[in-house]
Amino acid sequence: MATAEAKISVVVPVYNARSYLPRVLKSLLDQTIGFDALQVFFCDDCSTDGSYAYETELAKTYPNITVLQTKQNSGFAGAPRNLALEQLRTPYVMFLDNDDTLMPQACELLYQEAQSSGADLVTGRYQEVTEDGTPLAEFGPGCEISDPRKEYHFPADYDKIHEVRQIFWCKIYRTDLIVKNNLRFKPDSSMEDVLFLAQYLMVSRHMVFLNRLVYRFTVRSTSLSHSHTAAFLAGRAGDTLLLYEIYAKAGYPACFDQECGHDADHYLSLIFVSASVGDAASRRRLLEAWTPVVQLCLSRKLYVADSTEQELFEAIARQEYDRVLSAFPQYLLLRTHAQLLQTQQELHRVDEAYQGALRTCHALEAQRDAVQAKLNRWPLYRLAKAIRHVVSKG
Q1: What is the DSSP string of 132-157?
Q2: How far apart are CA 154 and CA 145, in angstroms?
């Protein structure tokens, strides 16, 4: 049950995360807005490692913690999260994964901005960390905004939402918008957060970005998004088409172009390099699954501007799978070589800029030394320096 003071629901989907849950709880207890201002939902997807028992003990200690459980393991975070969406009683909701943490000021910062601006969505930055909490990057790679605060007014600014693309967790959402539009997570999808955010953005009219760190995202090699199995890659194809349908139905297909312009190329490459896809038959089935996405990308001219990729896409679109299976290794080598050359050129440009800055620094140091030498030769300066020495000794 939500307490009378509760302002934000925090939804935590859980599956076999017993070792992470204490630090999740601590990050919630440490919120500057006050723990009593939160209604916490632990939504368990039939864990087998003692997570559910730990959650139920927490619920006995803290009246604002509610534990929910799916009837059977779904394998994704969408179904557990949907359980909480049925029980929201607070004006706002935030989402926290079971191995991540919120910065202490996160809830207060986002809530106060949402209240003062009336924004439908307020977002901050996130930081990627290792499982022991060591930062991997200063901020999340999906956001390149340098402004301390930036406002978006929709639909006019829909062409700019790619600036905060796929940053799902470090946001605060309005409960009434979720309820009014009956928004839910796709239960059998690894893209459930991206699809939910797209739906929410299409019914939003005002978003605020704050250049503040609010979320720490744990990068785990065993997470679903890092397990490029055949099932994962096939599901990604269908969900990518669904994402396009969400944007197109709302009248803004260009949002898909900005967000997924190179996804087809990326995931097609994974079909051939993933250790989990080991035979030609599996690769062929995956090519078949991705064919509609490739056809969509061709129709919207979403491919790297070189003839090699366009030819490859066209061969897939024509379902010339034997040709693609034989040509793709060579294509990957060409693309890798081109990417290495591009990276080398970028490194050369950075090095030239650094050397230029170093030369400027050396020149300034030389000027400073020359001025100091001139000053040292000035009699009055030497006299003043001697007097200061005598005074300090006295």
Answers
A1: TS-BSSSS-TTB---SSEEEEETTTT
A2: 18
Burial (Cβ within 10 Å: 0-12, 13-18, ≥19) of residue 42? buried
Cis peptide before 155 (omega within 30 of 0): yes
Query: What pLDDT score was predicted for residue 60?
Result: 97
Q: What is the pLDDT of residues 3-35, one digit of tens each?
A: 558 999 999 999 999 999 999 999 999 999 999
CA atoms in the 13 A half-sphere facing the CB of 291: 15
Q: Which residues partner with 151 through β-bridges?
A: 208
Mean local confidence (pLDDT), 184-200: 95
Question: Length of the chain, please?
Answer: 394
Q: Can you identify the CATH homologous superfamily of domain 8-224?
A: Spore Coat Polysaccharide Biosynthesis Protein SpsA; Chain A (3.90.550.10)
> Cα 273 to the chain's mean position, in Å?
24
94 contacts: CB under 8 Å, gap ≥ 6: 8, 9, 10, 11, 102, 106, 107, 110, 169, 171, 172, 173
What token pair was written down for 320?
């010339």
**CB contact at 8 A, 51 and 21:** yes
Note the helical H segments in the chain: 21-29, 51-61, 78-85, 106-117, 175-180, 192-202, 230-249, 254-260, 263-273, 280-299, 307-317, 321-376, 379-393
Q: Any idea where the domains of the chain sit in the sequence?
A: 8-224, 230-343
Instruction: Characterize 251-268 residue by residue with b for buried, 16 or more Cβ atoms within 10 angstroms of its Cβ, and e for exposed.
Output: ebeebbbbbbbebbbebb
Contact 290, 264 (CB under 8 A): yes
Using CA atoms, how far apart are residues 93 and 185, in angstroms rounded to an integer? 14
* pLDDT reading at 70 higher than 90: yes
Structure tokens at 316: 């897939």
Tell me the C-alpha distance between 106 and 113, whole Å: 11
Least confident of 34-43, 78-87, 123-132, 139-148: 139-148
Rounded distance between C-alpha atoms, residue 83 and residue 77, angstroms: 11
Instruction: Give dist(CA 236, CA 242) in Å, integer.
Output: 10
Whole-angstrom Cα distance, residue 394 to residue 351?
A: 52
How many whole angstroms separate alpha carbon 149 and alpha carbon 91? Answer: 23
